């Protein structure tokens, strides 16, 4: 019996060696075709995934064999399934036959930052791709009712999507669903199910109501790269999404070759684009028609000779001369109607009818409007084009003018951005170089140029190979004997794999560069003659954009698209980090902690029990308003100016409209697993409370999103003690071989009947934080003081923090651009998309930078940190990035955005230069020729004084710029209030005391933030609210449901000026009594 169907990859699949990048190709790899292995066989039999079979040592079983064993508690009858064939359908291949590339990093548990040389990359199939599935069953064995029923419900598990294939099953990869071409007959009797299997499925959603940023690994530019590298025109054209495919195809033929001079290529584009548009529109607007005519010359001959047609008849048919008729019949009918009773006598006139094909041109207005809309041509030239249809030169000139004004400037910008991206991701070039050198060594092995003695000696470097490459090659093949290494078949396949890998890396990098160069991924930058024009024309791709995967749908255009997602590996890593921190705090880092972590998340050669899916957007075509931008810049503490090399910007997700869906699956739990399941339940609770952060920029408030449990499914053979322990008296319903409980809606969040206590020992409320071996405070567990500070800020003088992206207002004054800048809001960078109704906020990075500056002074952090083992107090608390490997440390503070409520705003004109305005201590004075004066502490830290607005500042009723030598800003007026919070953990007593002082300071003091601080803008105070708390970890995980684990934090008890360095100087510098 042959069973056919389609296997749908609901998640991407990776099949291959864990140390390699490529998805395993069929045969020797030269065809680039892929399939899922049907039967365990070959050199990788002990580790590979296949549908059926068994390794020679019996330790590795086929996935269907394992599933049968799991469901029925016995081995699948040998020979029942004789063959499985599963090949990717042809329409799911990209033209280059490469797929998506998934990359990930490992975070060091102490530093909570990337670990060097621990990243990975895997070529995975496209999500939702489809494989042709064929399963051949032994008919004789299938006659057994037990076998028939067993096979039916085995395949039912695949149909329900409870089947995973390949690597990374616990990290979002491999989930499949089977669709059979024809339903199998349902057995009368159910097979006997083993009492051990069961299944928990948890469906969750998370939105971006709290900003979230999962950074994409691509587009990183190194400063030491060459300014231009040869590329090809086809790559540039692929990034021009505004150009319709029919035009792009013509352009790829004309200018899709190698590009060595970008300016010359732009000139070719300027010539070729109008020509291609003209050709296509002319073709669409032309039609060939049959024409029947009475030629004038032939008719004139009929008026002569022996049997001439009378002049009276000829005069009657004169209107028909040279007139086109669509058919002979139409011409004859008109002839008879015109001559009436004389027609029969003159029938020979019909003999001169001539038939010809004529080309008629009439502008296809619908095609033109569609073309103009896609290209962005705003000029209304349809009537002019229609009038010029018979004049090719005039027609093309109209197209050229429209392209020059409306289309080409934007396309040139995209070319410039892609040119900049040619400097990105240099690691690809380094890996390609390394693989080419590996190919050289493999060819030498195949040709007998490397002996067995050399193979065993790292110092015996072959001729033409560098020492470093030889040692690295031997290290990467240290488990392979010389005899196996020189096997010709293996070497040839290995060389093909290296060549394919090089091609994959090149092709994928080209894909990412095309995507990153699109306008929606390009930031706004200043440029132009005066550097005042703000435009994407001067921009570059954002330093960090959200993680994307390449997807493919069969279509005539053969075009893939990018889709935003959160990798399952990111979610798993976040859960594991939280679990390890909590358990190390409560149980210590002993064997019990390790066993529970291994059960939940796995270790080498032991998969974890939780299978984390990727989180996909509920609506992949999410509105542009959901993508917001923020800039970050480190300020020089001495000059107050931005450090150019430390400027960053990123595009992040924000808002309820952006919702992700994900799923967690757990198989085969028993009573002995309750300790791990209790930890899992607490982790789900933490995820709902927003305490498991995802992605990057965590210390700037990103990723602390609150998940929602939407549905929980429990499958069990029968109601048993596990059902009662986990879900109480939940109602079960029969579902095939399973008893099913499905809970949705509000009941899901509380379905785990009680969060069992996982605290096992009395932990000191505030034990000292753990110190890592290299001398810094570790993130591996919670110690010291942890909690959350709830803060209210009050504006004392107008405050302005510039919005990110395009300015609110632009104008041209005396030929110079002038901008009006709104206050920062969490909103899209483009003014057209931004709209109204956005929320004003103090950026989290701005707040963090403001407090860090004060903390650096208060902690006497004047000496730069030279090494992670020798951090100054500010770097130790706020985080630090040094040079070299493993020299980054995440901070122990998380600053949220400061959200304003019920505020008043006003526009201000701020002329410059302004250094001649001097604050004397009592009043402003205009002293020409003077430079701006500041408070300098210890000769290092600059602080702006808290003073009233300078007389040069002008309040505006309406934003009407009148001077190019001024900035126009919207500021939040005094009395405006904002609220924010600061999470903290592992703080020493002195650190928390100093932090609270830096926030509240003392009576009569105020902070300074934002633009134009010297002229009196930006003074504000901050107050730590009574809702602030410290965390009692033992109580939190000890079954406390009433929130008593939140220990009130009394600010008065923590304000201690004795821990503040430069106390008197700070009191003087930040005095606000003049306000």
Structure characterization notes:
The chain has 1075 residues and is of the alpha+beta class. The protein folds into 6 domains: 2-194, no CATH class; 231-285 and 363-421, no CATH class; 288-361, no CATH class; 426-521; 566-750, no CATH class; 785-1069, no CATH class. Helix content is 29%, strand content 23%. The strands form 12 sheets. Strands 9, 16, 17, 20, 21, 22, 23, 24, 25 and 26 form a 10-stranded antiparallel β-sheet that branches. α23 packs across α25 (989-1000). It is globular. The N and C termini lie far apart (89 Å). 38% of the residues are buried. Residues 223-228 have low confidence and may be disordered.
Which short descriptors sum up this protein?
single chain; 1075 residues; alpha+beta; 10-stranded antiparallel β-sheet; 9-stranded antiparallel β-sheet; 27 helices; globular
What's the helical proportion of residues?
25-40%
Based on helices, strands and strand pairing, what is the structural class? alpha+beta
Number of DSSP helical runs: 27
Low-confidence stretches: 223-228
Task: Name the beta content range.
Answer: 15-25%
**Count of discrete domains:** 6
Provide the residue-averaged pLDDT: 89
Largest sheet: 10 strands, antiparallel
What value does the Rg take, in angstroms?
Answer: 37 Å
The shape, in one word, is globular
Indicate the topology.
Blueprint: E1 2-9, E2 35-36, H1 63-72, E3 81-88, E4 100-104, E5 120-124, E6 130-137, H2 139-142, H3 145-159, E7 163-164, E8 175-180, E9 199-212, E10 231-232, H4 233-238, H5 245-255, E11 258-259, H6 262-284, E12 286-293, H7 296-301, H8 311-317, H9 328-339, E13 354-361, H10 365-375, H11 382-387, H12 392-421, H13 426-446, H14 452-455, H15 467-476, H16 482-485, H17 488-516, E14 525-527, E15 533-535, E16 548-552, E17 560-566, H18 568-586, H19 591-601, E18 602-603, E19 606-607, E20 610-612, E21 615-617, E22 627-632, E23 648-667, H20 674-688, E24 707-716, H21 721-727, E25 733-735, E26 738-744, E27 785-795, E28 809-813, E29 816-821, H22 831-834, E30 841-842, H23 844-858, H24 873-878, E31 879-881, E32 888-890, E33 893-895, E34 898-901, E35 905-911, E36 917-919, E37 924-926, E38 935-937, E39 941-943, E40 954-956, E41 966-972, E42 977-987, H25 989-1000, E43 1007-1008, E44 1019-1024, E45 1029-1031, H26 1033-1036, E46 1046-1048, H27 1063-1069
Parallel strand pairs: 29-41
Antiparallel strand pairs: 1-6, 1-8, 2-3, 3-6, 4-5, 7-8, 9-23, 9-24, 10-11, 12-13, 14-15, 16-17, 17-21, 18-19, 20-23, 21-23, 22-23, 24-26, 25-26, 27-42, 27-44, 27-45, 28-29, 30-34, 31-32, 33-42, 34-42, 35-40, 35-41, 36-37, 38-39, 43-44, 45-46
Helix pairs in contact: 5-6, 6-12, 13-17, 18-19, 19-20, 23-25
